[in-house]
Amino acid sequence: MIDDGFRLLPEQASTHAPHVDLLYFCLIALSVFFTVLISALIVYFSIKYRRGNTKVDRTPGSGHSLMLEITWMVIPFVLSMGIFAWGSSLYFSGYRPPAGAMEIRVVAKQWMWKFQHPDGRREINTLHVPMGQPVKVTMISEDVIHSFYVPAFRVKRDVLPGSYASCWFEATRTGEFHLFCAEYCGTNHSRMVGKIVVMEPSEYADWLGGGTSKEPPAVAGERLFEELRCGTCHRPGGATGRCPPLAGLFGHEVKLTGGTTVMADENYLRESILRPSAKVVAGFQSLMPSYDGQVDEEQLIQLITYIKSMAKP
What was the pLDDT predicted at 1? Predict the structure, then answer.
């Protein structure tokens, strides 16, 4: 929760936070243990083998200990691989949202955060979410590299121009929590701040229903799809057209000219809208014009959301 008082660490306000902190404190404990151990041995041997001490045997060793050499290789290897596996597990769990997560679209630009809820409601620099509900944030930048960072949730993800990035969190307590941009993004980088407002589910539902909601992204995307006359070539209903059908496309592999395949995810759809000749579907020609400069990032999100909503006929 936002607090002007001094805290050594941000409070834990998500399901992910305790696991990150446990790894962090284990790394500190390991560092302290080996620092104390090595320092103690240095002091001990400095005293024992000090100049003038005639009570110790200074005869050079005649060989080496194979078991000692194996031990000092195996122990650091096991520790480092264990830390690597633990950290990798936390990394992947932080970027693989559970099924049914509420999806929030985020567009970052100098110097603000723009959010859009599933029902179309928008916010700037403030994001309202329900407690106990997994929330997936799908993000892109309109200009330079930004970084979505919520210390209390232990969530940090770079937001890149030209490519979608995502992460997720599940808040475990209500309140307001700091949102920062953790990547230097220009003159007013320090002012690119916001907050996450976590509410009880019932309060969130009241808040969501009490505002003036705009049309949902899928509805806006369908309208834009018609305005751009996309259906002229991408005919609905699976009918054969000059371009590949889009119904049921998202989340499936697409075979390209040349025999390679690619997964039809958000980044593939975005690239196909802006640079359609980059990856041409097998069996079709590169006829589609580029919409680069004709649609902005928010309109791209709307189009992609609509394409994702198209059910396979």
Answer: 65
